[in-house]
Amino acid sequence: MARASILDWLAASPVRLAPMASYTNVPFRQVALECGSGFTTNEEIDAEALVRGNAWASRRDAECDARLGIVAMQLLGGTIETMVPAAIQLVEAGAPIIDINMGCPVAKIVKRGKGAALMRDLEGTSALLSAIRRAIPDTPLTIKIRGGWSDTDQNAVEVARMAQDVGVDAITVHPRTRAQQYAGRAPWDVIGDVVRAVDIPVTGNGDVTSLASARRMMAETGCVSVMIGRGALGRPWVFDGAYEALDRPAQITREAVVIERHLKLIDEYFNPAEALMQAKKHLMHYSNGWPGAKLFRGELFAQRTTAEVRAAFMERMQPLRELATA
Question: Which of 193, 216, 239 is the last residue before a domain boundary?
Answer without folding.
Answer: 239
